[in-house]
Structure formats: C-alpha cells, structure tokens
Amino acid sequence: MYPWLSGQQQQLTALIRQQHLGHALLLKGVEGVGKRELAQALAHALLCQHTNDGHHTSGEQGVPCGHCHSCQLMAAGNHSDLHVISGSARSIGVDAIRQLTQVLNESARLSHGKVAVIEQAEKMTEAAANALLKTLEEPAGEATLLLTSSHPERLLPTIRSRCQQWLLPVPESDVVLRWLTGQGLDPSLAALNVNQGSPLNTRDYLIAGTDRRRRELLQQFVELAKQPRTLTSVQSGLLEQPVHLLWLQMLLQDALQLALGLSPAGLRLADSEPLCRTLSQHGPERLTQALNSLLQLRQTLQPGTGRPVNTGLQLGQWLNDWLINTR
What we know:
single chain, 327 residues, Rossmann fold, elongated, DNA replication, DNA_pol_III_delta_C
C-alpha cells in the first residue's frame, strides 16, 4: 500500500476485524490519491477466508492471510465473489448497476460474502444511481459495496447518506516527494503543485516528461513580448491540454505575488522563479487584469457551461490583449 494510505488501511481493516465496517463504504479524495488500490486491499481483506476466524497467518486479524483459496484467487485476479465496475467509461449506466444487483443477490461461491467495487461512482447516471439505492439499503447476504469518488458532491445525496464515508486527504508533500524519488523519478514541489498534490498523477506526469513541456511552454509565453511572431506557437501549446491554461494561471499568480513584494518562499512554481520575476515587472495592476480575464476564460471553457465556445479564438484574443498591454 502507498505510504500515505497505510494508516487509513490499518483503520479500515480494524473496522473489518471488529465487524464495524458498514455494508456500503464511500472512499472519497482527489484524483490519483490511490482510492482504487485501497478499495482493492479492503476487498481482499473482506474476502479472505481467514480474516476473522482465528486461523490467519499474517499476525494481525483483519489483514488477509495470503494463503487461503480466496487470497490465491485475488492474487490471480479472478475471484468469483469480487465484482468491479470500472470508471474508465464516460458514464456508468443503469444496465451495469442492474447486472451488479442481480449478481449480488446470488449466493457467494466461497460462502464468505460478496464484494462490489464501483470506481468513480460519480459517473453513474441518475437512473443508475436510483437503481443502486435499494441495494445500498438492503444488500443481499453479506454483500459489501465499496464506492470510490473524486467528486462525491456529484453523487445523489441519497447515495451519500446510505454510505459510510471515508475521506482520503491530500498527503503531505514531503511524504509524496520521498515516494516519487524512491520510484526512480526526479520530482519537485512545483511538479506536485501543478498536479494539485496528487501523488499518482504527479508520477504519471513525470514519467511522461510533461514537466519539461510545462517549463518550455511557460518560457515561450514569457518571451512572447520580445518575440510576438511566436504567438501562434504559444497559442497552440496552450490549447494542447486544458491543464496548460492552469500552468499559465499559476505562473501569473506567482508573478503577482512577487509584484506585490511578497516573499518568494510561497511560490507554487518555485522552479520558474526567474520567469515570475520577469513577469512581475509588468506590475500588480496589469497582472491582476490578466489573471481575472484568464480565470473568466477558463470558466467559459469548462464543459457544461452552455453554448459551444471557439477555444482558439477566445485564447487568441486573450494573448493579443496581453501583448498590447505589455508593450
């Protein structure tokens, strides 16, 4: 288990040992904190044939023995009493939930209960969520449902109220940085900050080489005033991924902090301090104006905000305004 979740795992397995874990558990936390892995570990503990019968060999009740038939099936990835609805699709439909309900109503193959994991449960359609309600109220036999969600506020209140909720907080940065270093990566606090403190997202970001792209793109933006011919290139780079506009926002926020005479110790993009100092010369008024219009632009580009938006046109206008006002 990831080091920042080991304490949470111990507390939850203790509840399993004491038989105080509810029949429905909602694991909530930021994307990439390890909710899926923790749900799998709990499912393993719940399905182990020796977890609570006094014959375990792990040395601690509530922890899977690792030797019984159930543990062997878990290790092989084909346990017949574990049912997972992946959150990889755009939505979780009512048919998937109805099928899950039907399976949970059947007897367990190993006579030790069933476990269902619903990943990214906020992706359930309203019909799917309503179909799940009865199962949450009266699960068949010893069935346990484990739901994970990065956006629990999107779940129906009736779903949340029927679950035992467990928050997985964003881990301390020093813990994550040590773990990333142990993975053979070269992390920075800036890389962690642009990923909102998410350990697994930061890992994937570093492996993909995206941190290098961030530094290159922000360098190009700062040099735009001296090289206006690169505007199209900068615009294309910022349009590659929605998160690229977040990078720009964070750079401008750090520049504003310096322009206001505040300490550089709190910069979120500490590795871009020279760029921030260059931008800070434009003064707090100009930076505040640019930030406000960029925030409005990002809000406009959010999905579900109504009419379609020509993203390239909107961003091009913002960049032109920036050039005009920084000459």
